[in-house]
Each structure stands twice: as structure tokens, then as C-alpha cells.
Amino acid sequence: MPPGPTNPRTTAAAEDYLERISELIKTKGYARVVDVAAELKISQASVTTMVQRLDAEGLVNYEKYRGMVLTEAGEAVAARIAHRHELLTQFLRHLGLDEKVISRDVEGMEHHVSPETFEALERLNAHLEANPALRDSLNRSSTPD
Ligand code: ZN
To answer: pLDDT, tens digit, for every residue of 131-144?
Structure first.
């Protein structure tokens, strides 16, 4: 499939930005360069460069003194990543992994898992949710802490 609004070819870095911008808008009502820089722990200059690129790619509308909003295409990418984030978190929780390990790994995996593997993980998640005994047998934290 060619890249397009329903199948955008975005880099992991771009996806991270869109994920954070979307979260900021949801929690604060707005996203400015200074807020995104604080969230991603990088310089405001780097954020400005990336946000201008996302604007040129039609994923963000950026106005210098007003901050940024996601376009429809940007929203679609952010929603896709948020959905992946959620499902991967659930999956690793089923395996009984530590929350710190989960959040670190999910931030990487959400960008790199192919749609095919992701669909398989979704099926596995549903199966694990329906089978508590199987879940327990996989959950390495079933030993008392
Ligand atoms: Zn994430």
C-alpha cells in the first residue's frame, strides 16, 4: 500500500511526537513547543525543527506563537500508536512483567511491530483474557512478592 492518510509512512521519532502532542492536547488542552520539549526531554530547537517537518508533511498545524494541533492524518497516526501502546501494555502485563520494563519496552515496540504481528498479538491478548489459567501459568510474578 502506498503511504497515505490511512497508511502513513511515519518514522518512530515522528510517531513519538504525535503521541506526545496528542496526550498534551488531551490533558492540557494545548501543546506548545516548550511542553513537547519537556515531555520528550530534548531541546526546543529540535522540537521546532521536527514540528515544522510534521507540519510540512500535513500531520500537524503549527503556528509559531500559538503552538500546534494535529491534522486529521496526524490524529490517525496518534490514535494508531495509542491503540498499539494500550494493547502491548496489556499483553506484557499478562506476562507479569514489571511496570517499568513494560513502559520502556512498549515505547520501542509500538513503533516497530508490523501490522501482521500486531494482529496476532491482539488475538493472543483476547485468548489470554479469556483463559485466566493460561495467563497465570505465563505470569512470572505468580510467586509472592
Ligand atoms: Zn507509547
So the answer is: 999 988 887 655 55
Domains present along the chain, CATH in parentheses: 12-76 (1.10.10.10), 79-141 (1.10.60.10)
Q: How far is the CA of 89 from the centre of ligand 1 (A)?
A: 9
* CA distances, 2 to each of 6, 13, 16 (Å): 10, 20, 22
Q: How far is the CA of 100 from the centre of ligand 1 (A)?
A: 13
- For the whole model, what pTM was predicted? 0.81
Centre of ligand 1 from the C-alpha of residue 28, in Å:
18
40 alpha carbon – ligand 1 mean position (Å):
12
Among 96, 102, 100, 98, CA closest to 142: 96
Q: What is the pLDDT of residues 80-95, one digit of tens each?
A: 999 999 999 999 999 9
